């Protein structure tokens, strides 16, 4: 079976910034792709938590990761610039930032809910046993979660099979 164009040679590519920079540089500025859980499926799952915040449409959401999904995420400088340009007029209050997920530069309390929609999947792509990832990967995921919970309610969704996510939380 041949390699599909645009995908990394192996799963470890999903864990590199280089892959994401190349991917978003080659896609059109107006393209979008949701890896899984498109907004119409994800948002109803979050409604009870959003309602609990009591802020309606003023709820402050931080989306962790990299992607041009319709929900918006961050990691790739190329993508960040594309998303800023795409949403400048329609969503002027939306911020697009590139930063290390293990060392976020926001103030505590800036967000009501923090979403990880597949980011941990990309962080657990090292070679080896998917059921027993390298300790460095587990520690990086734990650091992501530690950072996320400082800012608000943490919600995580994953697609990959493998490691018991409780080891990373």
How many helical stretches? 5
CATH superfamily: Vaccinia Virus protein VP39
Count of spatially separate domains:
1
| SSE ordering | HHEHEHHE
- Portion in beta strands: 5-15%
Global geometry: globular
Q: Which radius of gyration do the C-alpha atoms yield?
A: 16 Å
First-residue to last-residue Cα separation: 36 Å
Task: Describe the fold and architecture.
- The protein is mainly alpha-helical and 169 residues long.
- It is 34% helix and 8% strand.
- The chain has a three-stranded parallel sheet with strand order 1-2-3.
- Strand 1, helix 3 and strand 2 form a beta-alpha-beta unit.
- The longest helix is centred in the C-terminal third of the chain and has 17 residues, at 135-151.
Describe the secondary structure blueprint for this structure.
Elements: H1 17-26, H2 39-53, E1 61-64, H3 77-87, E2 113-117, H4 119-123, H5 135-151, E3 153-157
Parallel strand pairs: 1-2, 2-3
């Amino acid at each position: 079976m041949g390699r599909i164009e645009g995908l990394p040679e192996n799963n470890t590519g999903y864990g590199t910034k280089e892959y994401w920079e190349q991917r978003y540089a080659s896609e059109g500025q107006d393209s979008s792709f949701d890896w899984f859980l498109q907004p119409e499926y994800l948002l109803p799952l979050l409604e009870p938590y959003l309602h609990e915040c009591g802020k309606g449409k003023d709820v402050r959401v931080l989306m962790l990761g990299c992607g041009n999904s319709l929900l918006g995420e961050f990691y790739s400088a190329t993508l960040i610039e594309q998303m800023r340009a795409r949403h400048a007029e329609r969503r002027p209050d939306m911020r697009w930032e590139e930063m290390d997920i293990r060392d976020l530069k926001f103030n505590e309390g800036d967000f009501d809910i923090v979403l990880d929609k597949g980011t941990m999947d990309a962080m657990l792509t090292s070679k080896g046993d998917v059921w027993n990832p390298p300790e460095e990967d587990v520690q990086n995921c734990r650091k992501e979660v530690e950072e996320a919970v400082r800012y608000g309610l943490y919600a995580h969704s994953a697609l990959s099979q493998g490691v018991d996510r409780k080891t990373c939380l």
